[in-house]
Amino acid sequence: MAPKKNNGKNGKIRKIGFNLSWLYILLTGIIFYLMFGGSNSANPQKIEWDEVKEMFAAGDIKKINFIRNDFKGEITIKPECLEKYASRFGGSVPKKSPHFNFLVSGSFNAEEMFGELNAALPEGEKVKIEITNNDRSLSKVLDWIIFPLMLILMYVFMFRSIGRNAGNGGGNIFSVGKSTGKVVEKPQNPVTFKDVAGLYGAKEEVVEIVDFLKNPKKYTVLGGKIPKGALLVGPPGTGKTMLAKAVAGEANVPFFSISGSDFVEMFVGVGASRVRDLFRQAKEKAPCIVFIDEIDAVGRARGKNAGFSSNDERENTLNQLLTEMDGFDSNSGVIILAATNRADILDKALMRAGRFDRQIHVDLPDLNERKEIFEVHTRKLKLAEGFDMETIAKNTPGFSGADIANVCNEAALTAARRNKPAIEQQDFLDAVDRIIGGIERKKTIMSKEEKELTAYHEAGHAVTGWLLPYASPVMKVSIVPRGQALGLTWSLPDERVIQDRNQLMDELCVLMGGRVAEEMVRGVPCSGALNDLERLTRMAYAMVSYYGMSDKLGNMSFYDSTGSRGFDLSKPYSEKTAEVIDSEVRKLIDEIHDRTLAILSEHKSEFEEVAKELIEREMIMASDLERILGPKAGVHGQERLAAGSETDAETKQETEVEAE
Question: pLDDT for 177-201, tens place per residue?
Fold first, then answer.
């Protein structure tokens, strides 16, 4: 156990741990010292045997140490004679010995040669001679130990760290082919269907899977077979992973969770090995659920991976996955769930019956589902009294579950920033605005001319959208810069799946309203309508080439919903047809421009009044538009605006206070 030490603060005991890395560093230091620091720190100069004899004759030598098996002699000069040899050491006198060394041949007779030289010296000037043999046993041991020890240190530092970083790699380079999936046997707080709001159709599909895992005999007695796999398909953030966890939580069985990208590594064959290991573990723990998130990372259609050869590692992994999904019995108790938001690029063999028998579409939530999702995410939030959940749900069309969670968090942060005791309705509306439009840039400096042009631009959108019967009702107009936009017009789009030509034409007119307003005020077009024109052009081409809403082309669609063309860059129509499409789109956009210009010209006074109010207040609401332009055109628009009238009035009051 690690020792304990009192740190002197409040009597708390602080543990002192031992880090194994220090031991490795210490061993490395000892090895380097033995290799490079064990010898004398003196720097002896090499001389020849003739110079040694001259030093003998001069009486400058104090001692000679001759190493017989190295044929090497080391000379120590008398201290009083060192000044004579200072030039040999760069002008300074060395403090450590030996000072010189010399080498001789194997036939050198040390006793005879040194005896003759000493005999020529006076009796008191004799040189001390030591003849020894160098013991190399330590160096031999180090030669055998250092290299293996360095290999061991390399293994510890590199391979063990690779194993830890690999997640479930086992700390071993040989386990790189093992599955990295996380296994949850019995979660502490399991996710159930109560935690997954909305998703009515998707829940009904997976309830049968849960029922099979709980009561398999109910189906096998009648000869039925449960689907081997179910593929959850839907946009990002709609709750596919949450739904898979809920299935495991309801069934109370082991849950294997792995991402599609975890199969693919830089090493050849690792992906296929991990697939085999995953299914081996699943069979051992059956009944269980295997969930593969983002399966498109490994399940992309073979032959459509641009830039890869036929021996692509991803394709090998996919082949192994297809084999394993066919390799177990349908009633073995192993259920495969997978999630993707790109089902169109998956391999057809992966989608066939017998592998993924069912495709469960997890779509964006509708009004009722959004209301339930808001209720789930606001359980732990402190809401103000009289909070209307339905109004917030109506103001978030097209939001996914992840977006709604973000709205709830932003609302809580906004209320805390304003020092409120509880989260109010307006905090949620401001959070929605922030997520859609971005953060308000209140300190952005705009010239008077630029501010007026922005006001007229947004007024063009607002007036056109208010007067057209099939356009989405305008809820709020602002010229406070947000994100990259200098102004924004918020509309509440209808949650309809099918749109007719009249509805699309009105929406195109709303997009064109900003450009037409700029032309009416400045006389020339400006660059502020870039995003509007981009969306308008895309919608116009869709009407002509996808929806068959062109008189010349008729009921023809060139849309490829299956993605079967892959990387085929050729168009599915001739050049003559392409010219007709371009001509029809130009004709449609010109018609939209003329219609929008006629609407704004007919209501020019109201249009200018809306723009002036925007310049003065920077933000106006639907009630202000109704006061200036009259009731919203279209009965359906009136019904939808009435639902948010109370919130609209509250927002207007706060806006007026801010403007003052």
Answer: 455 556 666 656 677 777 777 777 7
